[in-house]
Write a structure and sequence with these properties.
This protein is an alpha/beta fold. It contains eleven helices and eight strands. Helices cover 54% and strands 16% of the residues. The chain binds erythose-4-phosphate. Erythose-4-phosphate (E4P) binds next to helix 7.
Length: 230
């Protein structure tokens, strides 16, 4: 499963990219607004960070349109696509967004259809040749629904018809969401940096390391007769 980082924060992206474990970045207007920086500059910087970190060349950086009609979205997205081949156009899950997705596909430009909350929306995004569909599991869970059940249904529908659209688990809130996404066979999970850090750590790993360090220090003391200074 590919892991994307869901942020517009440059420091977080640098740290995540330095691990070599990520495959891309997603942004949205809220995340961009939070950073208070120039949008094109942020997206171009993200691409550069991933390239400089040697991230595999199939990485993508999603940049979301801010217009509502298909012609406007197409104009906006064509501008984004010129920034770099890794930039893909994030479109809303609306009729206009799906019209725009088809035009981008005709032009060979990849898209990420966002704010998906139902299997039928995902079906239509695949029919519109979206490169990625982004179902928001956390927001579904927040309202008492079952976000991961949606992922499983979309995977089934895509398998039934051989759709190539990638299923990206979005609105991730915890490591459990990442585990469940991987078990459900999601193609990608986009996760906040904090959750990414949580994936790596485990209390038993820390405990085990402390024990190993102690045992090795004791052993060294025993065979050399010299006590470690700290
Ligand atoms: C996906 O691309 C979105 O940016 C994101 O996952 C939204 O998550 P949220 O529900 O935490 O805002």
């Amino acid at each position: 499963m590919y892991i994307y980082i869901d942020t517009g924060n440059i420091d977080e992206i640098k740290k995540a990219a330095a691990t070599g474990l990520i495959n891309g970045v997603t942004t949205n207007p809220t995340l961009i607004a939070k950073e208070g920086k120039d949008f094109p500059t942020v997206i171009k910087s993200i691409v550069k960070i991933l390239k400089d970190a040697g991230i595999r060349d199939d990485f993508t950086v999603s940049a979301e349109v801010n217009s509502t009609t298909a012609p406007e979205m197409i104009k906006e997205g064509l501008g984004y696509a010129k920034w770099d081949k890794h930039v893909i156009v994030k479109l809303p899950m609306t009729t206009e967004g799906l019209v725009a997705a088809q035009e981008f596909a005709r032009r060979g430009i990849r898209t990420n259809v966002t704010l998906c909350f139902s299997p039928n929306q995902a079906l239509l995004a695949a029919k519109a040749n979206a490169f990625i569909i982004s179902p928001f599991v956390g927001r579904i869970d927040d309202t008492g629904g079952d976000g991961m059940a949606l992922i499983k249904e979309i995977k089934q529908i895509y398998a039934n018809y051989g759709y190539k659209t990638k299923v990206l688990v979005a609105s991730v809130r915890s490591p459990s969401h990442v585990r469940e996404a991987a078990l459900a066979g999601a193609d990608i999970a986009t996760i906040p940096y904090k959750v990414f850090e949580q994936l790596i750590g485990h209390p038993l790993t820390d405990k085990g390391l402390a024990q190993f360090a102690k045992d090795y220090a004791d052993y060294k003391t025993k065979i050399t007769g010299v006590k470690p200074t700290k």
